[in-house]
Every structure is written in C-alpha cells, then in structure tokens.
C-alpha cells in the first residue's frame, strides 16, 4: 500500500524482478564515502533496484542525499535526508562508526543519522529500499524506513506518531505544507501546517480508526486520548485556522483519483505561479469610499460558482433571505468578497477565504464579486495605431483574419506590440466584436498571448497584443536548427496548459478552433503562447464555412466533425493539438507538399501506419536525441494518437492530456484512430 501526498510520485510503486546474480552489492563498509558531484556513483542494493546517494537538482549546483528507484528511468526519489534540504556541490557523506555524517566541502556538518550508543559495523542498502546501519551482532540501529520523507514503500511500517511531509514543489524537496500523520490514538490524518512554526492545522481528512480497546502506550491515559480524538473531529467541522488543503482564496476539489486539486476562482490568480497549492491573490481591491459605494452596481458584478463554499470565512449570516437580497446586500457592502446563497440563507464572507472546497455535497451557490468592465483593456483610436505602426509598414505575419503589424506604444512596461487588423470580419459580427474582445481581455494565463487593447472605428477593427520576440512555433520547429527534444516537449506542455485554461478555467469557455503552429508564438523565454483564441466566432471559422472550404477531405489540423453534422465541441481543439503534438515530436509539418514517398506526405496517416505496424521508431529515425529518450517520445506519440481519435468521445479531455504529458497519469495504448472511418 502506498500513501501519496500532493507533489508525490504516483507511478513509482511497481516492484522489479530481483536479479538472480550474486553480488557483494548492498554492503557499505565503515569509512566509505560519497561526494556530491557529477561523477558520484551511488551505493546500490543487491538487486540494483534501489540506490542511495546524491542526485543533482534542477539548480545544477545543488544536490540531494536520497534513495531512489535505480532501474526506473525517472529515478523516482523515495527518501531524502536533511529534511529534503539540498546541499552544495562537493558535499560529502561518510559512514563512520558513529553513523552517517553529511558535511559541506569545508567540513561543516549539515546532517547526521543521529547519535547512538552502539557502534555501527556496516551499512546495508536493502532491496526493500531501506538503508540500514547494522551493529556487529546484526541488529539494525538506524533505518531510513523509520525516518520516512514523503513516500511509504511496500513492507515499510508507519509507527504510531509517524509523519510524512509533502515536498514544497515537485522539484523542491524541502518540507511543504501537507502532513500525513498516524496519531498516537490510532487515527490517520491529513492536515496542512504552518511552514514556519510547524503548527499543525485541523485535519481535513481523518481515517476514524481510533480504537479505545487497543492496548495503548503506557503513559497515555484513555481519557486524554479519546479527548484528543474528539477534539479533532469537532474542530474539523469548525476548522477556523489556516487556509485548508489549498491556499487562501483557493478552491479544493478532488480529481478522478480522489487527489486534491486546487484552483483559483476567476478574478484571482496564484500568488506564486509555480505553487499550484498556494494562495490566490485577488485581481482588484474594493474601496469603501462613498463614490464607489454609490455606484457599486456599475462597478461590481458577481460570478456564480455552483457547489462551492469557503465554510469558515463568514462574518454575517442573514435568514430568511432570497437570492436577490443576498446579491444586493453583498454588492453594497465593501467588506463582502463572496456571498453564499443556499436554501433561505445568505452568508457574507471576507478575504482571505479559507478551506475552499467544491463538491456536489456543498449545495447552493457562491457569488464571487468582481470588478467589471475594466479588463485593463485600452481602447485605441485608428490614428494612434496608424502612428504606432508607422503607417502599417512592418508586417509580422498574415493569418485567416488579415495582417499583423509591429508597432511601438508607450504602455506601462510594454512598448513593442503586435497590431492585428481584422479585415475579414463577417458583417453581422459587428455587435459581437466588443463582447468577444471583452472575453479575450479577461483571460490571463502564461501560455496565452495577452490582449492589451483594441480599436473599433467604423470598419477599422484591430486588436493590440503584446509582442512575442521569438516568432511562431512554425518557424521555430521547421527552421534550419532542430530545437532540442526537451524544448519541444516543454512547448507542447505549455500549449496543453494554455488550452486547458481556455477550455476549463477561464470565465467563459473558449474553443480555439484553429490550433496550428502558425498560431503558437514564443516569448523571450521560448514559452509557448497561444494566439488568436476567442476569434473563431468573429472570423466565421465554423462549420458552415469549413464544409465548403478547400480543406475538405484533407487531414490537416481539422477534426473530422467539422465535415459532418456532429456538434463542434472542445474536442476539436484536442484533435488539432494531437496533430500539433505529432508535428512537434516528429519535427515535421502535418502536410508536406513535396514528394517524400512511402505514404509519408500526410503526417497523421504515416503515424497511424507506423502505429499499426508497431514501428513508431520510424517516425524519429533520424533524430538521435529522440531515440535516446525513447520513453518520452513514445509517451508523446501515444498521447498524440489518443488526441486524433476519429470519434470525439474517444479523445481525452485536454486536462487528461496535460496530466499524461506531465507524467501524473499513465498513458495507455490508444486504439487505432481511424477504425470507424469506413462505417461513417
Ligand atoms: C555484508 O557484510 C556483513 C558483515 O561483514 C556480512 O555478514 C554479510 O554477509 C555481507 N552481506 C553481503 C550480501 O555481502
Ligand atoms: C532486508 O530486508 C529483508 C526483507 O524485509 C529482511 O529479511 C532482511 O533482514 C533485511 N536486511 C537487513 C540487513 O536489514
Ligand atoms: C526550496 O524552498 C525553500 C523554501 O521556499 C527554499 O528556502 C529553498 O532554497 C528551496 N530549495 C531549492 C533547491 O530550490
Ligand atoms: C528570442 O528572444 C530573446 C529575447 O528577446 C532574444 O535575445 C533572442 O535573440 C530571440 N531568439 C531568436 C532566435 O529570435
Ligand atoms: C457560423 O458563423 C455564421 C456567421 O457568424 C453564423 O451565422 C452561423 O450561425 C455560424 N454557424 C455555426 C454552426 O456556428
């Protein structure tokens, strides 16, 4: 049984066959040492399933003393010393008679395995993943199993009073906010804690395995223990301190695997963008000034979230109340950030919101106040943009909508912009323009190109975006220099995350409808940024258009449902993403014009043929880097094949795609994508 905390590895718990070859591995003699550098070779267990040694971290000057699955390519780390704190290069671990001692290059001690009255005779890296220090009479005097980090391995026992800590993040092993504890009374609990003081907040999960009939540690009395248990049950309901399982203002829900996921509600964004379990900051603050209060209805509005509540942030409850009264009361109240309306009750809540949860058991709705219509969008005059682009001279690109020009505008820290002239707007979308622009203006995600403003003067309709210095993915991918596999997979993941935001996380769902490498731009840091989202409605990229267009019958980026009467859903983007992912991994266009033979002109046909023949390796046969990292490449290709399933319902959601690419869920073998094509 494996216990998993957030940030914890999911797939690490398969056991590998034991090697039959006799080895002297496993034993570590007194005086043996390990040094933290690139050349360091770890101490292996007999079967070589587990290794004990230094792992280099993302910051290449830092190392972690740890135990990991040695024969699994991801080298999943299952235990670490020094509370997960990294140590500098050239730090040294020595096995002495007194135990393990870790010191930096100048000899300053950083960690040790604890003092013991007994002399250590030797160390042993057991095939169970347990590193033990053994006395001359073969008794273990120290075990890594007795000092767990964030993982329990098979055969490892958690003792009463035991605790696991989550990591800070996936790659920072220092102790994070989550704890998993076996209390002295027999209850297993999950709770968050204050990182600075280590104060444990009330549990958000309790196993309920308290058993007063169990023989208890002497020194503890029945009454005291049952009192402790009681307190935890009661205080879970009250739960007044700490932010809950997610950060302040965040909302926790359980995913398909019953693991907590945290999300900032609309109008809030992560305080630390790299810590998705962290706090969410509001995008605006309310003022209690008279002029704001008197025009509150013009300035603020509510976003509705069903089945969502922050049960511990109330400052006022009103009953009996109807929903209209509830809205009005919160709107007119400059302290009110959220109102919950359920039954005949209205609760008003103030910031920061804590213990946020989304669950069908919650009932009722949350009304989240937001400042409307500022969108930070600037309205430009035609003259301003004419000047900014020097008379629309420097062309950056052309798309289905018209031409994009480079321009310079003084606007906060930004000054180089991309001005998109929308020439081919459909006539009756005029009144939709403002609506759509507002929807686009409310999107904020690091994998989307940000809209800064717009111009709407008669027939002149333009959108002003931040400028992306590294051009389109098309030129990056199909240029002279092949980007590294790592760069390519990062870009693919960025695009998936941007799409996930558009499909599931922003206020109004946006189906992109035109995902292709020309519409993915790269910023200064080569992050993928999706552009042209939200324009599908304006540009009539819709079914009636495409069914007559020349793309009919080709297998470009368009999902088959475009050519049928089946409804257009977010799954069309998943399809296009799949094609794009295959292009990114194979580093070639979905359609090659020139003759390359062997049925390779259409990428997805080639992929399907290779897939059916069990020869996926042919797709990257000239790419040594890809062949050397076949596991990553194969995973990505299989995800791509899942996405291009002909039947939209067989395609995964973009959330699932993201999880598969991140490696948090397993990628299973997809069916052959075009099986049903003959029956349709
Ligand atoms: C490890 O060392 C101990 C003590 O020297 C010895 O008893 C044991 O057999 C050794 N184990 C292996 C697998 O070599
Ligand atoms: C290694 O683990 C096995 C299985 O739990 C156990 O029987 C053995 O005694 C362990 N060896 C040491 C040296 O702890
Ligand atoms: C991990 O996070 C802690 C606390 O934020 C920080 O002090 C430490 O430097 C980080 N470690 C690494 C290796 O980035
Ligand atoms: C990518 O952007 C950075 C930052 O603006 C710039 O220094 C670099 O030259 C760009 N690379 C290419 C290939 O344009
Ligand atoms: C396609 O766009 C046109 C023009 O906006 C619109 O009239 C039509 O209803 C749209 N069709 C679909 C299926 O969305």
Characterize the structure shown.
The chain is of the alpha+beta class. Among the domains are: 17-153, Orthogonal Prism (Agglutinin, subunit A), CATH 2.90.10; 378-466, Phosphorylase Kinase, domain 1; 473-662, Transferase(Phosphotransferase), domain 1 (Orthogonal Bundle), CATH 1.10.510.10. The protein has 14 helices and 36 strands. The strands form ten sheets. It has a six-stranded mixed β-sheet with strand order 29-33-34-32-31-30. Strands 3, 4, 5, 6 and 7 form a five-stranded antiparallel β-sheet that branches. Mean pLDDT is 82; it is low at 1-23, 215-240, 547-554 and 676-680. Bound molecules: 2-acetamido-2-deoxy-beta-D-glucopyranose (NAG) (5 copies). Residues 426, 429, 540, 542-544 line the site of one 2-acetamido-2-deoxy-beta-D-glucopyranose (NAG). This is non-specific serine/threonine protein kinase. It is found in: Membrane. Residues 1-22 form the signal peptide. Residues 25-146 form the Bulb-type lectin domain. GO terms for molecular function: ATP binding; carbohydrate binding; protein serine/threonine kinase activity.
Descriptors:
binds 2-acetamido-2-deoxy-beta-D-glucopyranose, 680 residues, Phosphorylase Kinase, domain 1, 14 helices, globular, Agglutinin, subunit A, alpha+beta, six-stranded mixed beta sheet, disordered N terminus, 20% helix, Transferase(Phosphotransferase), domain 1, five-stranded antiparallel beta sheet, disordered C terminus
Concise account of the structure shown:
GO terms for molecular function: ATP binding; carbohydrate binding; protein serine/threonine kinase activity. The protein is of the alpha+beta class. Helices cover 20% and strands 25% of the residues.
């Amino acid at each position: 049984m494996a216990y998993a905390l957030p940030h914890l590895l999911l797939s690490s718990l398969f056991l590998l066959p034991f090697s039959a070859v006799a080895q002297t591995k496993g034993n570590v003699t007194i005086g043996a040492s390990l040094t933290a550098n690139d050349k360091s070779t770890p101490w292996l267990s007999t079967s070589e399933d587990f290794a004990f040694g230094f792992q280099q971290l993302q910051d290449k000057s830092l190392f972690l003393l740890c135990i990991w699955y040695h024969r699994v390519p991801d080298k999943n780390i299952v235990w670490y010393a020094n509370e997960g704190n990294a140590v500098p290069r050239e730090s040294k671990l020595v096995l002495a008679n007194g135990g393990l001692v870790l010191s930096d290059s100048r000899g300053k001690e950083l960690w040790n395995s604890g003092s013991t009255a007994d002399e250590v005779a030797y160390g042993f890296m057991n095939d169970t993943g347990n590193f033990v220090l053994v006395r001359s009479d073969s008794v273990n005097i120290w075990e890594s199993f007795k000092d767990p980090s964030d993982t329990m391995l098979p055969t490892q026992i958690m003792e009463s009073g035991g605790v696991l800590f989550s990591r800070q993040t996936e790659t920072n092993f220092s102790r994070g906010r989550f704890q998993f504890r076996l209390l002295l009374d027999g209850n297993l609990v999950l709770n968050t804690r204050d990182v600075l003081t280590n104060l444990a907040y009330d549990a958000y999960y309790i196993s309920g395995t308290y058993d007063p009939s169990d023989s208890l540690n002497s020194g503890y009395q029945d009454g005291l223990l049952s009192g402790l248990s009681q307190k935890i049950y009661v205080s879970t309901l009250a739960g007044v301190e700490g932010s809950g399982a997610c950060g302040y203002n965040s909302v926790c829900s359980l995913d398909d695997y019953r693991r907590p996921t945290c999300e900032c509600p609309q109008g809030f964004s992560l305080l630390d963008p790299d810590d998705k379990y962290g706090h969410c900051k509001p995008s605006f603050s309310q003022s209690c000034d008279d002029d704001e209060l008197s025009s509150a209805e013009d300035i603020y509005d509510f976003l509705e979230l069903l089945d969502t509540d922050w049960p511990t942030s109330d400052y006022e409850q009103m009953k009996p109340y109807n929903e209209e009264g509830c809205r009005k009361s919160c709107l007119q109240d400059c302290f009110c950030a959220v109102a919950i309306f359920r039954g005949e009750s209205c609760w008003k809540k103030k910031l920061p919101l804590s213990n946020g949860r989304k669950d069908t058991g919650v009932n009722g709705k949350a009304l989240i106040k937001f400042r409307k219509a500022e969108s930070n969008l600037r309205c430009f005059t035609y003259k301003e943009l004419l000047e900014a682009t020097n008379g629309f001279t420097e062309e950056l690109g052309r798309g289905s909508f018209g031409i994009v020009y480079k321009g310079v505008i003084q606007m906060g820290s930004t000054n180089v912009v991309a001005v998109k002239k929308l020439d081919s707007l459909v006539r009756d979308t005029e009144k939709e323009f403002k609506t759509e622009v507002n929807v686009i203006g409310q999107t904020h995600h690091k994998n989307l190109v940000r809209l800064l403003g717009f111009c709407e003067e008669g027939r002149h309709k333009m959108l002003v975006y931040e400028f992306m210095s590294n051009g389109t993915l098309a030129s990056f991918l199909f240029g002279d220099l092949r980007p590294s596999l790592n760069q390519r997979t990062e870009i693919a993941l960025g695009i998936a995350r941007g799409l996930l935001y558009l499909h599931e996380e922003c206020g109004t769902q946006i189906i992109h409808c035109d995902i292709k490498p020309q519409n993915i731009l790269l910023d200064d840091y080569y992050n993928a940024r999706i552009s042209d989202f939200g324009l599908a409605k304006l540009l009539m990229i819709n079914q009636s258009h495409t069914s007559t267009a020349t793309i009919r019958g080709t297998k470009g980026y368009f999902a088959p449902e475009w050519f049928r009467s089946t409804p257009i859903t977010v799954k069309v983007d998943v399809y296009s993403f799949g094609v794009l992912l295959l292009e990114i991994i194979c580093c070639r266009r979905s359609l090659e014009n020139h003759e390359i033979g062997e049925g390779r002109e259409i990428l997805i046909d080639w992929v399907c043929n290779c897939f059916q023949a069990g020869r996926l390796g042919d797709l990257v046969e000239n790419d040594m880097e890809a062949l050397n990292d076949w596991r990553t490449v194969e995973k990505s290709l299989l995800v791509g094949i899942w996405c291009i399933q002909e039947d939209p319902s067989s395609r995964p959601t973009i959330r699932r795609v993201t999880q598969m690419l991140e490696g948090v869920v397993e990628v299973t073998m997809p069916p052959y994508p075009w099986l049903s094509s003959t029956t349709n």
